[in-house]
Amino acid sequence: VQLVESGGGLVQPGGSLRLSCGPSGITFGNYDMGWFRQAPGKEREFVASISWSGVSSKYADSVKDRFTISRANAKNTVYLQMNSLKPEDTAVYYCAADSTSDLQDDYDYWGQGTQVTVSS
């Protein structure tokens, strides 16, 4: 199983980015998916998750109303749309599979991460 994230980069405060994650080696439509992030010197933390059907999603309080998780099962892709970005959103963002939990130990598969830097 391989999860590959893309879409990270450098953006100014208040800007937007969309991250993508395209798993391979799994039947994507059967899997709940999540996004986590890890800032320098901090522990990895939950950002958002979405059920296999896309019906249910949840968010960390720190990103609620700014970030949106979605999925396109026909394209084997999960997205994280990030708006109104703040410097404190700077982190490596990870895609993870097989849970909607906010606990990283509940996920079986992880990507390598993509760097998001919010700075002027």
Which series of helices and strands comes N to C?
Answer: EEEEEEEEEEE
Structural class: mainly beta
The quaternary structure here is single chain
Radius of gyration (Å): 13 Å
Low-confidence runs of at least 5 consecutive residues: none
The average pLDDT is 95
Strand segment tally: 11
Q: What proportion of the residues is helical, as a percent range? A: under 10%
Largest sheet: 7 strands, mixed
Number of H- or I-type helical stretches: 0
What shape does the CA trace take? globular
Q: N-to-C terminal Cα separation, in Å?
A: 37 Å
Percentage of residues in DSSP E strands: 35-45%
Protein architecture, described:
With 120 residues, this protein is mostly beta strands. 0% of the residues lie in helices and 42% in strands. The protein has no helices and eleven strands. Strands 2, 4, 5, 6, 9, 10 and 11 form a seven-stranded mixed β-sheet that branches. A four-stranded antiparallel β-sheet has the order 1-3-8-7, with no helix packed on it.
Which keywords apply here?
mainly beta; 4-stranded antiparallel sheet; 0% helix; single chain; 120 residues
Structural topology:
Blueprint: E1 5-6, E2 9-11, E3 17-21, E4 33-38, E5 45-50, E6 57-59, E7 67-72, E8 77-82, E9 91-97, E10 109-110, E11 114-118
Parallel strand pairs: 2-11
Antiparallel strand pairs: 1-3, 3-8, 4-5, 4-9, 5-6, 7-8, 9-10, 9-11
